[in-house]
Structures are given as structure tokens and as C-alpha cells.
Amino acid sequence: MSMNSIIEIITYFSAFLMATGVITFCGSRLSKYGDIIAEKLGLSRTWIGVILLATVTSLPELITGISSVTYADVPDIALGDILGSCVFNLLILAFLDMQFRGSPVTSLAHHGHILSASLGILLFIITALSLFLKDKIFPLGWIGPYTLIFILTYFIGVKMIYIYEKRQFARYIKEKAIELKYEEISTKKAIIHYAINGFFVIITAIFLPIIGEGLAEATGLGQSFIGTIFIAMTTSLPEVVVTLSAAKIGAIDLAIGNLFGSNLFNIFILGIDDILYVKGPLLYYVNENHIISALSASAMTSVAIMGLIYRAEKKNFFIAWDSLIIIMFYLINMMLLYTLR
Hints:
A middle domain of Talin 1; mainly alpha; membrane; K/Na/Ca-exchanger
């Protein structure tokens, strides 16, 4: 490796550390004010995590996707970032579990997450099937029919989650009233602080794909592998910070809702990327290896659902059985992508 390459890597890595610092600081405050907004507006932490936090923390994937399918013309990076971020978000769930002693994190979470997680599995399977069939599916102009399914499923899913969570909130309104923690903070102040911190997270996160692509070029690895592993990890940094910060203040449902909600929004972004990729249906022009990530995300989400339903009372070690299986699937996904790169 030449000296210029080493200097380039150091430069990009320094920029990455700076971006990490900003996102860590503002992301922790974003979690706090998201929790306050949930309390003030009478909304569940699950719904706030699925919609409000997930939309903000998934914007780096949106920016990366748009740039990848327009002027950069690297559709594999776009899809790799989307599916890689979904897989990495589920890995974050396992890391989140390690933060709690005694009970698994899935046993502390609300059952409502099963709804958003199930919708995620549906979208992952449709993605994998579309990748397998490719040009055997009749396109709608320059877009694939799967794009309409992605967009409709996302909006219908958001509505379903909202109705379900509202119903649950009304059922337990007395208990919720007792749990109020932020009576001294006004709704206006919470929204303003949320917007300010969200703005800095978004602006900083926009540069993460550029940093990730710069480091990717310096390493010389393939687009599918880099897009799914490294760039996905950098664009998922907001999810990491916001999720762990939410858990730290005791907002478990906010944290888990952010992860499952980000996965739903990521597949919605894939639909947007397909619309902007005017050469034709996006999934016609990408490597079939991405099927591995789509199926891995489905399997990992299925394991998370099992944990949410089974609700184990304690861990055998420092990590719950479902989190351990999730980590195993993630490692298998990485090894297969590296082998087939």
C-alpha cells in the first residue's frame, strides 16, 4: 500500500471520527426529546420509534441511494447499503441486549413490535423474490412492480401500527399517566430541541456515505461487499447512537421501534431509488448475491419475533439466546458475501 493511500485512509478515518462525535452527542439528545414528544402527544414509544426516529436515522441511506442510482450509477452500492443497513440494524438489537443484565431485552419490550417486524419480513421476502426473478417480472415503465408494493406496504403498515398503538395506549391510559417523567418540559420546547438535534444528525450523516465510499476505494474491495458491510455500517451509525441512547434513558420500546421502523423505511427508500433509476427496474441491474442479505434479514427478524413472543425470564450468559442466533446469522451473511464478492 502506497503512502498516498495510507494518508487518504487516515484522512477519511479522522473525518469519520469527527462525524461520530457529532452524531453521538446530538443522537443521544434526539432520543431524549423523542421520548418527551411521545409522552406529551399521548403516543406510544413504539410508534414514535417506528416513524419519527426511524425516518431521521434512515436519511443517510436515502442520500446514499439517490446518489448511487443517479450520477454515480452504482446500483449495487444502493441496494447493498439498504439491505446491509437492515441486517446491521438487527445486529444492533443483539448489542442492545448486551446492555441489560438479567432479562433479555426482547422480554422487556412491547408486543406491538411484532407487527412492524412482520411487515419487515414480508418486504425482505418480496425483495429476495424480485432479485431471483429479475427480468421475468413484467415492469411498469422503467420501474419494477415491487416498488409499488414497497410503497403501499410502508404506508399501510404505518397506519396499522398507529391504530394498534393508539388502541393499546387508550387501554392502559391510567398506567401511562402515572409514568409521566417530563412534566416540567413543554411540548414546544421538546419539538424545537428535537428538530435542532435532528438537523445536525441529518447534516452530519449526509457525509457518512462519502466517507464510507472514500475508504471503500482505498481498500479495493467489491461493490456488493463494501455496500452491504462497510457503507451500511457507516450509514447505520445514527441508528446505533439513537437506539443505545434511548435504551439508556429506559425507553426500550423507542429503541427497538427505531430499529424495526428503520428497516421498513429502508425498503421504502429502495422503492424511491427504483423510481429514480431511469435505466429500468433497479433490481434487474444488480448482483444476485444481495438475495443473501435479504434472506439473512428475514431470518434475523424471525428470531427477534421469537424472542418477543417467548419472552425468556433470564439469560443463561451475558447475552440472550435470540441475540446470539442473530449474531450468528450476521456473521454467516458477511462470510457468504465476502466469499461471493
